[in-house]
Amino acid sequence: MAKLPCAGRRNILVTSALPYVNNVPHLGNIIGSVLSADVFARYGRLRGYNIIYMCGTDEYGTATETKALEEKTSPKEICDKYHDVHKKVYDWFDIRFDKFGRTSSPEQTVICQSIFKKLLAQDRLYEDKINQACRLYCESCQRFLADRFVIGTCPKCGMTARGDQCEKCTHVLNPGELVEPKCKICNSSPHLRETTHLFLDLPKIKNELVDYVEKTSIAGGWSSNSITITNAWIRDGLKGRCITRDLKWGVPVPLPRFEDKVFYVWFDAPIGYISITANYTPEWEKWWKSEDVELFQFMGKDNVTFHTVIFPCTLLGTGERWTMMKTLSATEYLNYEGAKFSKSAGIGVFGNDAQDTNVPVEVWRYYLLSIRPEAADTFFSWADLQAKQNNELLKNLGNFVHRCLSFLAKPEGQGYSSKIPDAPGAEEHALTVKLAEEVSELLQQYVDSMEKTKLKNGLKVAMSISSLGNSYLQESEFWRLYKEDRPSCNIVVRTAIGLVKILATILEPFMPSFSKKVASQLGLDLSDLSLIDADVEAFRTPWVLLRDGHVIGQPDTIFFEMSDEEVQAYRKRFAGSQAERASSEEAAKKADVKAKADIKTKADAKPKKKNATVNAADVKTPVDIRLADIRVGRIVKVAKHPNADSLYVEEIDVGEDTPRTVVSGLVKFIPLEEMENRRVCVICNLKPAKMRGVLSQAMVLAASNKEETKVELVEPPEGAVIGERVTCPGYEGDADAVLKPKDWAVVQPDLQTSSELIAVYKGAPFSTTGGVCKVASLASGSIK
Ligand SMILES: Nc1ncnc2c1ncn2[C@@H]1O[C@H](COP(=O)(O)OP(=O)(O)OP(=O)(O)O)[C@@H](O)[C@H]1O
């Protein structure tokens, strides 16, 4: 039965940006919208809030029409097919919507047209009577071009942009503003042709909008990027927004002279949240026209202005009281191994690919959420996924859970025959009291973070409770207590099991499949996991969470190790674009089968690692980029080498007491004045070497093309701190005191610049606290 708002409860309506229907979503789409919203909605349900999560596919517009042309079918059939594809991907990712609908429903037409009529009645729309109403028309395709089918140069930042928005600087455009526009379908130059359209009169609604933004943005906890983007938009001056298009596949405009037009997809898409709710319950107005409902919206940064300016203006302009967005959680972008995820170019891992790997859903969710781009763009890398799976999930979380449960499950004489012991005196047991205090403090941080949609921090805090659990077990020496001091052992075991229950609960929003398994191993139902205030209070005394005599279920391993071979196989399998992968189909098929077989055999052959604690002495540091001590430096002085024309001698500040002297062969490529004061990436642990009589104490990293005719410095970003270490996600660890030349020879060939000009090691970007390191223009260069 559909939920409705209830007086006296927190009523929360969650939405995530409606994914566009004509393609398979990639991991960037998943973390940017649906997965983030799912975590928050799951958290809200655990807290006992009256919460619903609405989402669905955004189906109208030219992109669908064109896809239908390509696939020789109708837009409706395209939408049916891809709606299903999306649904299956999200089901696999354990995304739990209360309703996953679609914008091509009859309810959408009714609600969209009714909002339009109210805007008209309130005089918030105007027809364009001058040339602003021109749209680009392609003579060779004989059609008006939808915004996304025009590409050109952004007038603001000078980069390539689509007709509706520049993805580089997020500037929202009218297609006519693009410099040198081109038709994306046939590459000819479209021209402006006049056609009358309807505009939403944003200047007329400005005061109400500003009032709303001022009242809500800070108080509602909008993510800082969304506040910046919105304020910049308002400051730059609001202009009328065209809300109609010369298309067929869309909601018809119910006005004489406009019958052959439909609403622009960005006018109707946010109305989709409302119509999808109307598909969920006929009493949808109780959610959407209420002052007692908190609306939380999740999306990537490119969707912000549509949700903070255009959609609010649409609602405010009707003169009715709509439920306005309270909290907006907008992510930056997730990138793929140094490149950009792209649906059109087919770069990256897509929702259906993820299912086709050996990586279980809980690991996918954990990894994506642990690198959620909350404050800056982040990077997916297979090596980082491996590191997080092996170190954080297996060695920390899996180890703790399995250690507690398997000890408890052992027969009397070695364990507790699966029965929770009585544990009087826990509140006086010093180590346990200390643990309980630390856990309480972390739980408070967890709740604070989750309430503010700081999901990444919520996850980090939850994982630190698991680390505390491991330290607690270790310090207690429970195996010794079992023989020498059984009452204390009972306290430790019962407390640790309570901690397992806490972890299963607070990690449920992030990894529901993990929590389900742990609940069953604890002999509990999922419904026993709750985070209502009384439970959070009880979590302060973990030893009371499972009663004595309770019998747990069967312990089993939850996480497994990912091998280097698997990482290599995945990197190879998902390299390049989907088209490139498909073009060598036969070869790819064979490689694929082999890769999968390799991976499968490995997984099968692998003795199921029982979350064993790994002995540090057994771990051999692999030969990779972590061995190199790369630091952010600044050239404080530079001169030509006295004895060699091709060499510079620099003094570089790398955060030490005195600058280092460095000799580099860059004279031919970089003029002396461009070297001065330049920020650089420097390898600081190579053995100092004399170069033509001058002792060089480090090496500046630069990228070159194949012919070595062009060389560019690898530059740290503005925000990086001089002297900080440059690391590559997935390859963290101590550098060698001195980097051996033979190790450098192994590492160097994998150092490159990506298509996005980012310095990468095996796809993992050179990262600093200020962002990633880049070169000026040299893509696919070799770094040394
Ligand atoms: N790399 C990314 N990282 C994080 N979020 C992203 C990324 N790419 C897209 N998103 C977000 O994913 C959500 C769904 O995107 P949507 O399906 O509209 O497609 P899109 O990737 O933005 O591309 P297009 O508009 O070309 O279809 C949006 O909120 C968008 O901001």
UniProtKB/TrEMBL annotation:
Keyword Ligase recorded: yes
Record key words, sorted: Aminoacyl-tRNA synthetase, ATP-binding, Cytoplasm, Ligase, Nucleotide-binding, Protein biosynthesis, RNA-binding, tRNA-binding
Enzyme Commission number, as recorded: 6.1.1.10
Subcellular localization, as worded in the UniProt entry: Cytoplasm
Enzyme class: ligase
Catalytic reactions on record: tRNA(Met) + L-methionine + ATP = L-methionyl-tRNA(Met) + AMP + diphosphate
InterPro entries, sorted: aa-tRNA-synth_I_CS, Anticodon_Met, Met-tRNA_ligase_1, Met-tRNA_synth, Methionyl/Leucyl_tRNA_Synth, MetRS_core, MetRS_Zn, NA-bd_OB-fold
Family annotation (Pfam families): Anticodon_3, tRNA-synt_1g, tRNA_bind
One of the GO biological process terms: post-embryonic development
SUPFAM superfamilies: Anticodon-binding domain of a subclass of class I aminoacyl-tRNA synthetases, Methionyl-tRNA synthetase (MetRS), Zn-domain, Nucleic acid-binding proteins, Nucleotidylyl transferase
UniProt key word Chloroplast: no
Cross-referenced PROSITE patterns: AA_TRNA_LIGASE_I (PS00178), TRBD (PS50886)
Residue ranges of domain TRNA-binding in the record: 624-727
GO molecular function ontology, one term from the record: methionine-tRNA ligase activity
GO cellular component, one term: cytosol
Family to which this protein belongs: Belongs to the class-I aminoacyl-tRNA synthetase family.
Protein name: methionine--tRNA ligase
The organism's taxonomic lineage, starting at the top: Eukaryota, Viridiplantae, Streptophyta, Embryophyta, Tracheophyta
